[in-house]
Amino acid sequence: MLPLSRGRPRRWQHPLLLLSALLWAPALVAFNLDEEKLTVYSGPPGSYFGYSVDFYIPDPSTVSVLVGAPKANTTQPDIVEGGAVYYCAWPATRCRQIPFDNTNNRKIKVNGTREPIEFKTNQWFGATVKAHKEKVVACAPLYHWRTLKDSPEKDPVGTCYVAIQNFSAYAEYSPCRNSQVITASIADIIANYSFKDILRKLAREKQTGVAPPSYDDNYMGYSVAAGEFTGDSEQGLSDTDPKGFDIHGSFKWCGIHVACTTQIAKPVYCWSFILSELVAGVPRGAQNFGYVSIINSSDLTFIQNFTGEQMASYFGYTVAVSDVNNDGLDDILVGAPLFMEREFESKPKEVGQVYLYLQESAFLFQDAQILTGAEVFGRFGSAITHLGDLNQDGYNDIAIGAPFAGEDRRGKVLIYNGYSNGLNPNPSQVLNGAWASQSMPSGFGFTLRGDSDVDKNDYPVVPLIQALRIKNKHGLEQKTNDMSGNDKQKKTPPNTKLTKNPSNTSKIKINKIENLLWGYYGYHYLIVGAFGAGKAVVYRARPVVTVNAYLILNPMIVNPDNKTCQLPSSQLLVACFTVRVCTEFEGQSISDEIVLKGELQLDSLKQKGAVRRTLFFDYHQSHHYFSIVIERQKQLHCQDFLVYLRDETEFRDKLSPININFNYSLDESSFEDSLTVKPILNYYQKNSLAEQAYILVDCGEDNLCIPDLQLSAVPDTDQLIIGEENCVMLIINPRNDGEGAYEAELHIKIPPEADYTGVERNNKALRVLSCDYKMENETRMVVCDLGNPMVAGANFSTGIRFSVQHFENADFSISFELQIKSSNKINPTSNLVNLHINISAVAQVQIRGVSHPPTIILPLHNWEPKDQPTKEEEVGPLVEHIYEVKIMYVATGPQAAPTELLMILVYFLYQ
Question: Where do the FG-GAP repeats lie (predicted)?
Answer without folding.
Answer: 35-97, 111-172, 301-366, 367-425
